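Lab notebook page, bench 4
Experiment: in silico fold of construct C2
Operator: M.H.
Input chain length: 124 residues
Purpose: comparison with the prior construct
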Amino acid sequence: MQRKLTLLILFLFLGSLAGIAQSSSFETATASTNPGLLELNNDSWAIYADEENNVYYIDFENLSVNLSNIQVRRQDGEVVLRDDVFELPVNTIYEIDFNQFGSGNYDIELRSFTGVIRHSVSIH
């Protein structure tokens, strides 16, 4: 009986050490980057630009996260578009027509529950 109890305590101790090691390695990995800002590679092809018509397309299927909402901000910080997209299918192609906002510099913010992907756009 004492042997079983000792083995149980040993397994619990080793399991808790494994959990601590996993959580601390995750914290170290995220602390080395900018927390809250997810990376969008140019190779991912998640945002397509039709610059001639000032229309941008976001391909949800090529993103590594599920989005909660999309925001478009002017350079001065004013939000000109905010749309909740959490319930849209993962294979959605979302369209943003910048003709309604006029010329200027904008940031497209793809927001998830874990961070933000930001893409700058210049409309002429």
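Observations: The CA atoms of residues 6 and 12 lie 10 Å apart. Residues 18-34 have pLDDT under 50 and may be disordered.
Next step: discuss at group meeting.
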